[in-house]
Amino acid sequence: MATSTQNPVRFGIIGCADIARKLCRAINLAPNAVLSAVASRSLEKAVSFAKANNFSTEAKIYGSYEGLIEDPTIDAIYLPLPTSLHVKWALKVAQNKKHLLMEKPVAMNVQEFDEIVKACEENGVQLMDGTMWVHHPRTAKMKEFLGDAERFGQLRRIHTCFSFAVDPDFLKNDIRVKPDLDGLGSLGDVGWYGIRAILWAADYELPKTVTALPGPVHNEAGVILSCGASLYWEDEKVATFHCSFLENLTMDITAIGTKGTLHVHDFVIPFQENEASFSAGTKCFFNDLVTAWTPLPSEHTVTADLPQEVCMVREFSRLVGDIKNGTKLERKWPIISRKTQIILDAVRASIEKDFTPVTVQW
């Protein structure tokens, strides 16, 4: 249960997806949140999920999504449904004045995304997507390095990769390979993270153009299993990303500046839950005999008092609490999400246009 009972944000969870197990734990560990309800289309499934995920005996269990959404005691809803269902249920959540923590990708396209944001703003509810790694304390430390004019200089190149090798059952049955459920495939599921990392490194400045890289892999239903793209800015910054369901687990960011380089090899999910590291090189070159580097890049380890998903829930709950006390909505998170969705859309468009550049527009 939450470690503090002072006005905790009362969370309901719609759907019993695997990722929801992780968020149940995060809500239980967050000091300003409490698990209050779960809903499934099957009451039996909701009961089983609640028992397996440490819901209190006082928690409410619903055999329909509408029952939870209409519950006046619930403050916020975590929505981990398939992406194709997001706009329908997010609108219902917002219209019932519930704050909304959504799994990524937020929508199938930016038009659906804008519908969700409009509903949230009209009903005074906070929207945040479930990109957990940006809430890890390591992320703030890495950003300090990127923003240091003496140690890192000016950002010139960003390369990201997120891949994992799935089994045959995943390729046949998982919702992320079904066009009517999560039709964005690996681009939406893991490409979202690489795109977000690029934008994060570039201070969320949108690129001028996006060009998909040749050689994407689709399944028989046309869903993307593997792809990549390059992004170009007017100041000649360049970024690339790769995402895949077909290659070994890799979670890399390389950001190169005029004076320094950042390397991180576990940016989405740290190797260890209680700490995370990154490498920072500044003005590195070869030694006199060209047999070694000098100076060596420095290794930095950041201890995490709470897992990154708990930090996310804590921050989201803090915003919800502030709104209850009269503070305006925090627009930063929807803006960041929209920029990520815009790039995702541009990659898809470039693939459909035989890998020609697509101009990015806000």
UniProtKB/TrEMBL annotation:
Q: What is the lineage of its organism?
A: Eukaryota, Viridiplantae, Streptophyta, Embryophyta, Tracheophyta
Q: What is this protein called?
A: Uncharacterized protein
